[in-house]
């Protein structure tokens, strides 16, 4: 980004990919405990953009805005803010005009509006009926869950036993999501059936750890295997989105070796260190080719 006005307190203007973007309150603290101002946040977003844009493009975007920083009031935004620049593209669905996050200027424009979280739809704009991944969301019932990585490891080993390659990803909050890139030929209902099969197995095999109970009040301290979230019209914290929590965590794909070794926490990955990790590993999701799940779906259908 080339700054054309460098006033510390007044609005600044940056030129990005030929587009002029006005940055208001560049010194506003967004994560004050960590010294992350709006201008610093936008720099981090620019670095994350090749990865974050890839996982938001061709999807309907929901953002969460924190005008006064992560610890203050917030609101969800589905409809695109107005007025919008010409470079901000729209995707319409069910009377909602979503932002189509497909370029860096749009990402920085949203960042200037204090969008601290980016949640992407499971259904794609171009082909909404057939997803390109299947996701299991491991959702702790406690704010602090020291067993979450252990739980993710058990899911990984189960999928391995089913000959399914996957990628674990921190939610950026307290949970972990297991991402399985899939060939784009399975319906949401087929994948939901597979998720139920896996969730039921885990809750029977490890009843002290997992549950498929939908009601939070009935889960106790168990980790919810949420297979229902993966459906058309629902969203996920996009890979590489920041999260509006203490520590400025980032939703980060992991290596299975890291998970199996233990000793890591979702909070370990944040805006201040994510650049080093991405420069070292790149996007770990790219390492898994789209999976053919026919063998598992056939087994489920014949065992009913």
TrEMBL record:
Signal peptide: none
Provenance organism: Paenibacillus catalpae
Pfam families (UniProt xref): LigD_Prim-Pol
InterPro entries, A to Z: LigD_pol_dom (IPR014145), NHEJ_LigD (IPR052171)
Superkingdom, natural source: Bacteria
Record domain DNA ligase D polymerase: where: 41-284
Name this protein carries in UniProt: Bifunctional non-homologous end joining protein LigD
